[in-house]
Amino acid sequence: NGHALSRVMTGERLLSQADNEQSKQTGQEYIDSILQNASPQELYTISYSFGHGLRLTKNPEKARYWAKAAADKGSVNGTYYLGELYWNAKEVPEALKCFEKAAEMGLTAAELQTGRIYLYGAEGVAKNPAKAVYWMKKAAPIASNEDLLTLVGLELSGPRAVKNHEDAQKYLDMYIARAKPEELEENAEKYWNGVGVRKNFDIGGALALAAVQKGNKANVCSYAMKLATPNWFGGDPVTAYAILNDCVLQKGASEEEVKAFEALEKRMSAEDLRKAQNLNGEDAIEAIKIRRVYLTSK
Predict the structure, then answer these.
(1) pLDDT > 90 in the chain, percent
(2) CA 99 to CA 105: how far, in whole Å?
(3) At what angle do helices 21-37 and 40-52 cross, to 10 degrees?
């Protein structure tokens, strides 16, 4: 009745009868008819079945053959799957061609995969930050939190060709909306101290503030120490002093907090010190809870 996968299954069985020429001929006719008449989606389904051993014997070579047939007929899923098969075979440049073609056809998963390959590079493929940012921005709705933060970092402090502070803020906001307070604090420390990533006070400070705003009360003092940093444009010595003043009075205050408070007090102007000493610590904390999370000194 023309069911494509059934015809392939039957054709494969007939072709396996090596001692029966008539069966082999009929089997090949079934296969040829599918190649000519099946829809792109049917061809992709056949490829996927070969690739995963679903009702057909698992066979990577046949999976690639049918995926190419699907791609040649315009199947976006077939094109992407052909890229996966090339990738698994470590034929990276061919895989990238397929991924990028599927990305150009609008497949979000392909946009993300293409962006990642251009971001990190791979055997036979050079890094290309501009293309990485282009494709990762398109795939942002399904990107992982790590992908979004990487995109923020590239647009904030990457090569000149990809810098875009407005977009960096947009994707930072997207990341913050998704992330839990503990994750925000962890990544705040990574970016603030440059642990495994390019050091960036703006990203680190913004994430630390977001962690506090999402209810991570344990890290209010940690954020206040960042506000006290003299070489961060986003710093606020008056607010930092008011909060740290309460932090060092708490039982079990860390030595780091005490040192940060003392150092801040020494470098503050008399006017700022007066303002800070008249600012209630709880009021200062409430103020930072509604502070906008900016990547710059706004």
Answers:
(1) 76
(2) 10
(3) 130
